[in-house]
Amino acid sequence: MIPMVNLKAQYTDIKDEIEIGLAQTLSNCTFILGKNVQAFEKEAASYLGVKHTIGVASGTDALHLALLAAGIKAGDEVITTAFTFIATAEAIKYIGAKPIFVDIEPKTFNINLDEIKKAITSKTRAILPVHLFGQPVNMVAIKSLCEQHNLKLIEDCAQSFGASIEGKQTGSMGDAAGYSFFPSKNLGAFGDGGLVATNSDEIAAKVKQLRNHGSGERYYHDVIGFNSRLDEIQAVVLRAKLKRIDDYNQARRDSAHLYSQLMADLPVITPFEDKIGIHVYHQYTLLSERRDEILKVLQAQKIGCAIYYPVPLHQQNVFKAECKGLSLPITESVAANCLSLPICANINDETIIKITDVIKGLF
Ligand SMILES: *Cc1c(COP(=O)(O)O)cnc(C)c1O
After folding, report:
1. Is the CB of residue 92 less than 8 Å from the CB of residue 100?
2. Has this prediction a pTM greater than 0.90?
3. Would the CB of 283 count as within 6 Å of ligand 1?
4. Is 188 in the pocket of ligand 1 (CB under 6 A)?
5. Cα–Cα distance between 241 and 343 in angstroms, integer?
6. Cα(196) to centroid of ligand 1, in Å?
7. pLDDT at 73 over 90
8. Percentage of the chain exceeding pLDDT 90
9. 7-102+110-242 — its CATH code?
């Protein structure tokens, strides 16, 4: 059996360091907003090249609190992509704002700048691009569009920890960004966790207040907030992995390049790397008209593979009514033909050869 993600191998490598940190946390019993969260926030801010980071309970919360802190309100329109995980749009809906889904680029699967331009109305308040599968969106172009129209720019970096454009990290170029530490993400915790990154003192102060019941000083509450804190146990794990994130991402890139090299002669479209940035391959996703057949032969060999995402958001039951009549042809065709193969920091070359041999067998 070959899993999509092998978390166990990664754990084995750093077990000692993590267990020392966990034992210390368990014995001093500070579980919420202790010194590991503080240290992790500092280390993450320095890695990402941003002024502030704020640990929160999940990536979904990170996006929700970032949008709230950036001043997005009920009735506002937020332009985003339908080819993403549901959480991107959930965060917009929690506020009562309206996600406006626009089509993607056929090669990068990321939001299409020209489609964003067409969708801007007098109600548009923000753009929420997703660096999908770890491929950075062209932030330079989107940022200048946002400045021109006075829009907030909130990045969904759940899949792009460590990805960069012209030496700048994704998540450092907009007004605020949300990261997820769901265990299978490039930087994964041992449970749920998330992070808001921002260069704005104002947004940072608001997120800090919102994550902790709307309070600055304990038991004094200024706004209705949430219980959304990163916990110490997760911070211990994240500190150990953050030190190694560049190696993890380089290993993902090497694995992706081997896959693409081994499948170069097959009638499948291997992932495109936009040279504007460094892709960190949260997923290795190919396109093929025979996607369902490939899926079947891999499953028969007990090789993990998955369709991210089979149903774009505008066609999900929850959005069907509000998106009635909306057609996003590129999004729909990519959803019908995409297949993600196993990738993680610890997959070895023999495994990749075995997987591609099975696919070659089909053709
Ligand atoms: C994982 C993910 C999220 C949500 O993160 P959670 O930590 O699971 O809440 C948001 N957006 C995208 C694109 C994701 O992949």
Report:
1. no
2. yes
3. no
4. no
5. 17
6. 13
7. yes
8. 98
9. 3.40.640.10
Residue 194 Cα: closest atom of ligand 1: 7
Integer Cα distance of 35 and 57 in angstroms: 16
Interval 294-340: pLDDT, tens: 999 999 999 999 999 999 999 999 999 999 999 999 999 999 999 99
Regarding the beta carbon of 84 and ligand 1, being less than 6 Å apart is answered yes
Distance of CA 182 to the CA centre of its chain: 10
C-alpha distance from residue 293 to each of 255, 299, 306, 311, 359 (Å): 23, 10, 13, 18, 9
Class of domain 245-362: alpha beta
Instruction: Please state the domain extents for the chain.
Output: 7-102+110-242, 245-362
CA distances to 15, 81, 176, 192, 248 from 155, rounded to whole Å, are 32, 12, 6, 19, 22
As beta bridge partners, residue 2 has 303
Lowest model confidence (mean pLDDT) among 5-19, 83-97, 114-128 = 5-19
Q: Give the residue, by CA position, lying nearest to ligand 1 atom 10.
A: 87
152-156 and 176-180 as β-strands: parallel, antiparallel, unpaired? parallel
